[in-house]
Amino acid sequence: MAAPGLPTTTPATSSTRVDLAIQGIRLADAPVSRRAGAGPSDDGHLLLDGVGAAIPLNPRSPYTVQGGKLLLDGADTGMGVETITRPRFYDLNTADGVPYEKIARLHSARVLATTVVQTCVRYEESQRCRFCAIEESLRQGSTIAVKSPAQIAEVARAAYELDGITQMVMTTGTSNGRDRGAVHLARCTRAVREVLPDLPIQVQCEPPGDLAVIQDLYDAGARSIGIHVESLDDAVRRHWMPGKGAVPMEEYRAAWAEAVRVFGWNEVSTYLLVGLGEDPDEMIAGAEELIAMGVYPFVVPFRPLAGTLATDVDRVPSPDPRVVAKVTGRVAAALRSAGMLGSAQSAGCAACGACSALSCEGA
Ligand code: SF4
């Protein structure tokens, strides 16, 4: 109970959004959620004041929900919360008996997401990215190792018809081939566009050794691309991503430049994870350079996830919320002044925005 004269609600600000991204939310269940897998996971997909947000589910979080309101330590924050309902396509199976939800999943309210190859050539412990749990969901049996283009197209059509998805994200574990998995992504993209010619698709991959593959991905029908570096600091990259960090930054820069040429300004993005030990000011300066290239830096706080080396071995804590707020705020300001908005992208994480607080800052 608030003291007399004090308001009982706290204004819903982007700092609440940042804090939620770090502290998570205490919810008995979220019908749309994700355990393990590539990138940020172990989260529940919610609408915060009507805006999609992927928030870690944490039974010890001070944030709870009551009557559709977000509470902090029992006090109303003034922010509305709705859980996203389970999509209908999750109840279907392919003709050969694979549940559709093992092939692709709903992210936020309207994004269909899939990892087309759920294994990674870098998953051996000395090479694996320490924040990643891509093969964990495979081990748990919640997905299959390789999704065929036909399977993905079948599920995409159902998700479009039954649940009204508006865009699709396809990522991949890294393969042994020179293309690092991009060729299979192109095949999957083409198959989806054959059944849904207008569905915007973002593909996500490492810099393909042969830059011509970037054009192939576009020609297959992808309209946005994520080439995710996670950190711009080579020492951080070597420690956190021994395998992927061995790909020189020049390869990333060449791939981003080619991707901007092919896909266009603000249709190329990269994740930057706050909390890996990179100097915040250097990260902000690096993000500004990316923006000048036409690449959107999707700033996301590092999440300690079960099943990752960072959590199970290194016991790395969540980042300091003040650092996340500073980097998010400064990068958002740079994006706004460049006129570069995630919501203006055709598809992908920046267009979705659920995993970052950038969208709360108008970027
Ligand atoms: S931002 Fe990306 S990873 Fe996060 S929910 Fe949206 S599509 Fe999924």
TrEMBL record:
InterPro entries, sorted: Aldolase_TIM, Elp3/MiaA/NifB-like_rSAM, F420, rSAM, rSAM_MSMEG0568, rSAM_sf
Keyword Transmembrane: no
Residues that span the membrane, as ranges: none
Residue span(s) of domain Radical SAM core: 104-344
This protein's UniProt keywords: 4Fe-4S, Iron, Iron-sulfur, Metal-binding, S-adenosyl-L-methionine
Cofactor(s) recorded in Swiss-Prot or TrEMBL: [4Fe-4S] cluster
One Pfam entry name: Radical_SAM
Keyword flag 4Fe-4S: yes
Protein name per its UniProtKB record: MSMEG_0568 family radical SAM protein
Species name: Nocardioides humi
